[in-house]
Design a protein that fits this description.
By secondary structure, the protein is an all-alpha fold. It has a domain of 123 residues: Four Helix Bundle (Hemerythrin (Met), subunit A) (Up-down Bundle). Helix 1 packs parallel to helix 3, helix 3 packs antiparallel against helix 6 and helix 4 packs antiparallel against helix 5.
């Protein structure tokens, strides 16, 4: 009888222990399932952030090449999307390690935004300066067309040479502004080298023209052209300087974009992958 009681007590202990063990395992399993659920919810959220990040970067590169309201609006839309999904992602983070990665990502992203905003302002400044340069060159060309050339009448001294030199000056003026515009859009080294060559040609033929027998009718327009042309040159040089700056800052932005993308690929996604694998084995 006593032996049976002991056996019953042992069985009760085993059963009770089994129940407790089952409840413990069940709770742990629920914890693991919850962690896995959160982890899987992070995947599409992080993907949305990364995709919007690349779309924002692409919109910036497009805008710096061909500034348009469409690309600017696209960039602004993607920034809002990133902010929205970044907030959602941070709410899902439940470890200090991942918080550290998220802080790093957010800082790099904010630095990238600062660079992007700088590129937008720089490109808008280039638009303003380019228009001023274009208008100034037109005005300089008008002085030749409507003031200097009308003085070239039959019988004046050096008529043939004057027409030849002024024609060369006009061609070089337009080649200079075209080289400037092409460099703004293409960053072509050939265009950058061509610009000073055309300035040299303008100066060369202008000096040759002034050495001819200038009439009293022509003289007032010479100074007018020289002043306006000098202003045009200064504006075109500023355009080229801004284009150089844009080229360097676009490269810097590109490097920043790649650094942010590495955080997605080699830190966030790798961390989530390892954590899922670890919890799945439990």
């Amino acid at each position: 009888m006593k032996k049976n009681v002991i056996i019953l007590i042992l069985l009760a202990v085993i059963v009770f222990g089994g129940i407790l063990g089952y409840q413990f395992i069940s709770k742990e399993r629920q914890k693991v399932d919850k962690i896995l659920e959160v982890a899987w919810n992070k995947v599409p959220t992080v993907r949305e952030i990364e995709v919007s990040f690349w779309e924002a970067a692409n919109a910036i590169f497009y805008y710096t090449t061909d500034p348009s309201a469409v690309s600017l609006k696209q960039y602004q839309k993607e920034v809002r999307e990133i902010d929205k999904f970044m907030t959602k992602y941070k709410a899902l983070i439940d470890t200090e390690e991942e918080k550290r990665i998220a802080v790093k990502l957010e800082k790099l992203w904010k630095d990238s935004i600062t660079e992007a905003e700088g590129l937008i302002k720089l490109r808008q400044n280039m638009i303003d300066i380019t228009k001023k340069a274009w208008d100034s060159v037109h005005e300089a060309d008008d002085i030749i067309d409507y003031k200097i050339q009308p003085t070239f009448i039959e019988g004046i001294p050096d008529l043939i040479e004057k027409e030849k030199f002024v024609r060369e000056i006009e061609v070089s003026i337009w080649e200079a502004i075209n080289a400037t515009n092409f460099y703004l859009y293409s960053h072509s080294d050939d265009a950058r080298r061509e610009f000073p060559l055309q300035l040299e040609d303008v100066n060369k033929y202008w000096e040759m023209y002034k050495k001819l027998d200038i009439t009293a009718t022509e003289k007032p327009y010479i100074k007018e052209f020289e002043d306006l042309w000098q202003h045009s040159v200064e504006l075109m040089k500023e355009c080229n300087t801004l284009a150089d700056e844009l080229k360097e800052k676009k490269l810097s932005f590109w490097k920043s974009v790649l650094i942010v993308d590495d955080v997605f690929d080699f830190e966030i996604q790798e961390y989530m992958k390892k954590r899922r694998e670890k919890k799945t084995r439990l």
